[in-house]
Amino acid sequence: MNPRAHVVALLLVAGVAPSASAYEQATHALVTSYAFQASLLGSSSTALSPRVQSLGLATWSPLGVEAGYFETSTRFSQGAPMEHRAQDYERGILDDLHVDRLIDPLRAWLMYGAIREDDNRDEDPPTPRDIFPPLSRPLSHFYDPYNDRALNSAFLSALGDEINKAPDWAIGSPDAFTIPNTPQTPRFNTFTVFDAREAMLRALTLKSYDGSAYVDVAGAGDPSEKQRLRRMYWATVFRALGDVLHVNQDMAQPQHTRNEPHAGKYCSWIPGCPGGHSSVYEKYMKARALGTKNFELKQPYDTPIDIWPLEMSAGSYPIPTFASYVDYWSTAKGTASLTGKGLANYSNQGFFSAARNFDSTDYPSPPHRMDAYAVRTMPVRRWDGSTPADATPTYVFFGPVADAAQGAVTNDVPLTTFGLWDQFLQKQGALPRYTLNRLNYDAMANLLIPRAVSYSAGLINYFFRGVLEITRPDEGVFALADHADPKGFTKIRTKLRNQTPDFATPDGIPRVQTMDGGDLIAVVRYHKDLKYVPDLAEAVGVAPCNTPLSIVVEKDPDASTECRDGAEEILVSEPVLGKSLAQGAVDLVEFDFSAKPIPFGITDAVLQVVYRGALGDETNSIAVGTVDLSEPTYFTYQNATDYIRIGDQVYTRDEVDRDPALLTQVQPRSCVDERISPPHLQPYCLNPFKVDLKVAFDDLAQPIATIDGLAERRFIRFAFLTVAGEGAQTALKSARRNGLRISAERHGSTRKASLQQDGTCLPHNPIDAKPRLAQLDLISWQSFTVKNYEMKPLRGVNGWINASCVVNGSDADPGTPDDRVQVMKPLMPDSDEIKPLPVIIMSKYLSDAD
Amino acid sequence: MFKMRLVLSVVGYINLILFCYIFWNNAPQRLYGEPLAGMVVDAATGKPIPGAYVSYLWESATDPKGFFGSGGRDICYHAAGTRTDDTGRFHVDGWSKWSTYRVQNRDPQALVYAPGYARGIFMLQTGTIKPPVQRLHEVYGLDRFSGTTEQRIESLFMGFANRGCHYGGESQKSLYPMMRAMYLEVRSVAQSAEQHQAARSLGRLAASVALAPDPNGPDQSRRIQSFLEEHLQ
Fold it and tell me: What is the ipTM of this complex?
């Protein structure tokens, strides 16, 4: 160990490791809140944003109630996630800013991360110590793009890999500029982009990719435990991303991009205040964030400052759309940094800092030439707005600040002040000097805070950019299964469109977001229907489970009722490997669930498709699409040809034969033997018959289900999964519009069964295939509605879409209503009659194992 | 031999400095506040305001232990709340406790709240930080509030109720009566959804000081919610 390292080691043992501060935590929290609002996750109304819905987070308490989260990687136990709880420390700061985790969970968890990124082992009272080992995280919150360096100091360099360039630290790469897709392993920081990505895959699938296969990360556990894990992984995504945002936001603090520590320690002991003066700017920004009327500075000032309150606003800077994480920090190094478009480039070249002011030659920009500024004499106005009696003026240097990202220049910005007044506008008797006072800091904040907000919003948008649009295949349903077979759904078929929006290189050239050779996984989320029995005599939708409050506890939707399991479960398909999907392209993909079929007894079903793989420049990205599924929607067809329709009523054959009045209405008349008295039906007319059935969405030439020779008083029933609501997606609307069509023909006949003497079917083609719903619909994070529609019986058999054909005994137009539902007697209980007969399901919907 | 002694002496000296440094860094110090008393009056008429809430917050920036230690957070390390009597007078006892917090003993700030009046924030000390002194003749004048409901709610929340006293331990419970009173006022005037939301936030802050949770303990959102439902509905 070299001597310098020895000294540092001693300092470490003594618990006096160096550290450096950043924007205060409340400021980061507020900037993060603004960024969330500005991002695609935010919403201007109380409704949840489309991106939140496409992520599948429009669900009750998506990040959990108990504030748990994980470290998915740790330096000392690779691969074994460590469970943590959020601390009251971060909750307290959220309270101070008017944000409640239970009401606004995504925003809150991002803010939690933004707060906790400042964990520092050297504070007393300590910042939370629940993450091991305790680090001085702020040391890695610096990046000087002009010199391409982390915080640089003789003492600091011996600390080795605990000090990183800010983008490397946040992204998790050993060099985010050259190998952005390579994680640093092991690494101190366990809340990086890589960690957020890993947590996202686990949150969606409860699986992790080990380099060759997808492995289960949940182990054995009941559904509520697995739900808890998924929620905690989602919390981890936002917690880690909040940390990442914090590190980017620090690039909007010039001291962090101009290699200027600002610890404010031992200034009175060691000449030159080697740790840097306390940051006036950061303390002032915190006061603005919290609306306080004063702030206090430690060394070398040791003074409280009264201020007149000024709100910290989000501004409206355009949200960047860089196609690479590191670009949000810096798009160029060295002299090229001066025209770079990252946030560090902007603050490094655009502003002075307290110790790298006009009289410092460490950086070429802002320039050190007097002719670059308009120098104006200005009267002194103190931080609290008061004017001192002394009329000695200050000289304020107004200059331009270039914004390469927008190709714009903000002119006349008061960049520094010269005179006998110090930063607090207390008159000093010594020589005049350059200082930054409230005028300069307000000007700085006006430009930097809106950029901090927008760059963070851009990072959020970029992280969650991968979007898959899920629509039904041409056949009209996602899944289809014969209800006579208890197995359930073994395949999901869906069209997928890569709807990832455009992102661009720093030069503005679109960087196509192609999904390239990654893997697709389908996930079906649902709550178990605790009442379900295969004959549907009991199920959600059937009394006593036929009202909204019978399936959901209003005060606690996580609680189970006698009808619905409160825990949401997931089923994950086999992965579809090596799929590519160009931006905007559509492909039909089939997912195999045969290993664990999707059961019929489910409610609140949701389909998600997850892509893991290369997306644009990120090699291990995730894209996701979500569609709210119907509950298993039952189509029942009953051969009710033991009934005859006369006029708008149905009768048994015996009833018709015995009633002369009815016989007079029978058509054709040849079916009535009027040669005898009283007249009777001819024995060959209006008899029950077997039916050949085809069912299709739209095109009967491509039936999704068929059966030949369905006997009288027997029925078939199949179930399908479709979209719950048509929503705003045109593609979804068109599928529903097609409706369900049936073709019911007398067995062996080529004529349509709806013709006279053959049969008349209700409902009439096309049948409105309304999805069956029994689900909780979120309105906001704290309010929801519950849809639970009742299943109806036909001849004593419960179903959702109940079709039946009776013999047509008169000349009624096909499809005209009649009283069959009320009149037809139930099928024989406890007999084969109430069991569905097998139906042939379109082979496309069957897995190879079927 | 001489060289060896020199080296040992230097090493010993360094170790002594380090020991002193570590001791200084971790040694508890006595934090204290002097007795405070005075009166709250209507700024326009000079008449006393009975039943006004007076809360003192002892706040300070902290010194980190590290050589380049961060500028340190600003914390509130003690709180004391009381109400004025029928003559508008109040009194707060002095206090003392040991702590390792690297804060400076100083006079507190006073937050004064009375329904119908604008909030009052009074710095007891300006300029360079000095140790606390006994102040028994404070007079806090409050202006009548004039403004919109939104401005009223904003003024009670930002920079006032949201200061809290997270590191005040049990002492922060003394803030509860004032926080509760502000919550009840805001709840009674709230009309829009945002204003009701602000009322709920104020309620949470009130519940938080009442429960005085450990900042480095697990998130207490549910406990706070339960307190809200039990005591502030």
Answer: 0.89
